[in-house]
Amino acid sequence: MPPAIPIALFALAGFTTGAGMRMLDPLLPLIAAEFGVRVAEAAVLVAGFVLPYGLVQLVAGPLGDRLGKVRIACFAVLLFGAGLVMSAFVTGLSGLIALRAWCGCFAGAVIPLLMAHVADSVPYAERQVTISRFLTGMVMAQLLAGPVSGVLAEAAGWRVPFVVLGVLALGVGTVLGARLGPALWRSPAGGGGGRGMAAYLDLLQKPSGRWLMAVAFLDGFLLFGGAFPFTGSFLIEVFGRNAAEAGLIVAGFGLGAFAYTRFARPLLKRFGEKGLLTIGGCGLGVLLAALALAPAWPVVAGVQVALGLAFYMFHGVLQTLATEALPEARGTAVGGFALALFLGQSAGSLAFGLGLTALGYRGAFLVAALGVLVLALWTRRGARVA
Fold first, then answer.
1. So where does this one cross the membrane (predicted)?
2. Which of 12, 51, 76, 269 could form a disulfide with 106 if both were Cys (CB 3.0 to 4.6 A apart)?
3. Number of DSSP helices (H) and strands (E) in the chain, helices first
């Protein structure tokens, strides 16, 4: 077992990788202008990061189980930071795409492995509260990465945010490595745990494992890839907000998510896990319907804050269940959950895009609302929680 490490350091590692995903949002027009391409062509930088981020879960989980979860996460943060710094010095778009893929690959290993390590170290009764503290880093990245990246780019060019975040990631990785001490350079006694890639078969042979992967896929399909990414466009095209205003309104989601990280303990004590699944899931469905029917943008702004809280009430329980799906190979189980979520997100973005063409924003949001309500009720019936 690695030495005890403050949860705040894990949260900071999560912040760096989360910010690495979101930092590009305001930079695409500047990058496109420098390299002489259209923004649509520069948008491949987003896929260049996200695809490796999702697919690396296949190997990161089993590798962490075998060689040590915190060890692998530490090396991943360092290599992620190095890729960010190198990104600031590229001279062509193709080089930047390659480095975004590099960064996505290593960033994708960090949060699932650290979450699995937390689960190894914390009793189940305290696990959701501890994971909520760990998720503070990811939530703050959602709130701050875009605005801070945009301010730095306006003041000093698009390359500066890469250097700043890269140096931060290298610093976090160095401190994490120092806290590990000699354990950084040696594998766990007995070669660690897990059965490598074969552990995925163990997970899928369990009815609870198949249920969890299906729920994660639908979570990603309806929310991560479905409704959530299109709220900004909804504000711009339906309510006439500009990009900056839409970004600020959408950031309200992060405020609701942050509220969850602060109040997870009393919420869990009051409602229990099954209650949080029900309230969070049904709340998501009702709020998406309210989004679809919103008469003005201030209503959307209020809904965004509530969506952030409801989502993490629902999703937080699922993440905690994932840590217990395969206790002998938690890195694999959490990685499998993240992979299913990513695959659902990818499919959901395509499906929601088609839904916009056929039904418009309001119709697509209503369909998503109905789907989430069905998912919430199914999840409540199928969950084996306290």
1. 42-60, 72-93, 99-119, 131-152, 158-178, 211-231, 243-263, 275-297, 303-322, 334-353, 359-378
2. 76
3. 18, 0
- Tell me the two tokens of residue 198: 């074969």
Domains 1-193 and 196-386 share a fold: yes
pLDDT of residue 89: 94
**Whole-angstrom distance between the N-terminal and C-terminal Cα of the chain?**
28
Neighbours of 169 (CB within 10 A): 31
Q: How far is CA 310 from the centre of its chain?
A: 16
pLDDT of residue 301: 92
Residue 70 near residue 116 (C-beta atoms within 8 A): no
Per the prediction, the chain carries an average pLDDT of 84
Write the DSSP assignment of 143-184 as a string of letters: HHHHHHHHHHHHHH-THHHHHHHHHHHHHHHHHHHHHHGGGG
The domains of the chain are located at 1-193, 196-386
Residue 214 CA: distances (Å) to CA of 205, 211, 336, 342, 382:
13, 5, 11, 12, 11
Q: For the structural domain made of 1-193, what CATH number should be given?
A: 1.20.1250.20
Give residue 23's identity as a one-letter amino acid code: M
CB count, 10 Å around CB of 295?
8
What pLDDT score was predicted for residue 386? 39
Packing angle, helices 93-107 and 7-22, rounded to 10: 150
Taking a C-beta distance cutoff of 8 angstroms, is the pair 93, 32 a contact?
no
pTM of the model: 0.78
pLDDT in tens, 87-120: 999 988 999 999 999 999 999 889 888 888 888 7
Sign (positive/negative) of CA torsion 364, 296, 231, 373? negative
| Maximal CA-CA distance, the chain | 61
